[in-house]
Structure formats: structure tokens, C-alpha cells
Known about the structure:
A 5-stranded parallel β-sheet has the order 2-1-3-4-5, sandwiched between helices. The protein has helices at about 10-25, 35-45, 60-70, 90-95, 110-120, 130-140, 160-170, 175-180, 185-200, 205-210, and strands at about 1-5, 25-35, 50-55, 80-85, 100-105. Residues about 145-150 have low confidence and may be disordered. Helices cover about 50% and strands about 15% of the residues. α4 links the parallel β4 (about 80-85) and β5.
Amino acid sequence: MIRVLIADDQALLRGSFHVLVDSSDDCRTVGEAGTGAEAVRLAGESKPDVVLMDIRMPELDGIEATRQICGDPALAEVRVLILSTFGLDEYVYASLRAGASGFLVKDTPPAELLRGIRVVAGGEALLSPSVTQRLIAEFARRPQPERPIPRRLDGVTDREREVLTLVGRGMSNSEIADHLALSLATVKTHVGRILAKLDVRDRAQLVIVAYETGLVTVGT
């Protein structure tokens, strides 16, 4: 059973998400938060598998709440799925940088939202090509640093860097396997090793690393 914490400042939306989550056979709601601070507190108390996190909330916004939850070693197994509205593309990068495992718009069909919860709970990143394009657009708007933001890649092999680069370009494991003429199992092994070596939570964070280290640049 996937345990879900719902964080949104609108009671009507919280109630709607609550009903949707509890209508599934494999998910149940373990709490509701109306503020970012309450989301952080309830996450610490209930340790849900997934937090459905709104961005615009009082006390703490969803990005800062996500940063606090994902930065707490005691909540290492908690995954955050950001829910927002169409007009907030500028928050995609900040959300993923804060540690979120995915980003969905609030008018996502119910079945897709439940699928997203399952994907994130399973340890994968909900990072669609459209979200990757938003990340690229965000980097394009930002001044490019003279050198990549430091991050240790010394222990990452040449093949793993190649895989990391393709992840940063938004490719799925199957697409990477086809591109590099590798088996899907081999690609999954490489991705798992990269996650461990870089000490990051999931695929969404790998995209950030690929850009920040200069493996992927705008226009490539």
C-alpha cells in the first residue's frame, strides 16, 4: 500500500485528491497539510511514501518544504511529487533542484495522477520529455557560468558519463539502450551505479547534475 500525504492550501483540492487516492486499490491518504510548514511536520510524523506537494502555500512554499523534506536523512525514503498549474513553468527547475522526484500539472487526468504516484513511489522519476524541455528552457534563460558548478565525477566511468549525458538529454532507459547498442538491463545497471556514486535520489536529479557539470549544455 502506497502511503500518500497531500499538501495544498485549498481545502477543496485536498479533499478531491484525498478521494482520488483512497479510491485506488494500492494507495491511501495518511494526512493532509494546508501549509508548507505543516507538510514538513506531517512528513516527519507519518513518513509517507509520496508527498503530493503544491507550490504556492503559506508559511513555507512547496519548494522550500520539498527542500526540507528531501534534505532530512530521516526522510530519505520519502518522495515528493510536485503539483502545480500551467502558468508556473519557471518553478520546474527549482522544484527538481530542491529534490522533487516529479512534476505534474493539476489538471492531469486522475488515472495519470495515480500512475505518477506509483512511478515516484517505485523509486523512478516522473520526468516527461515536456518537463525536460522546461529544464532546458530554464538553463537557456540563466547566465551560463564560466565553468561547470563543481561536482565530483572522478569515480564515474567514461561509459557512465555517456549514459548520464543521455539521461540529461531526456532519453529513457530503452532509448539509451538503442542509442548505445546495450541491453536494457545493462543501462539500468549503469543508471543505478551513477545514482549511487553521485549520491542523488533519482533520475530527475541526474538531469540536474548533467547540466550543472557541463555534460549537457543548452543547444546540444
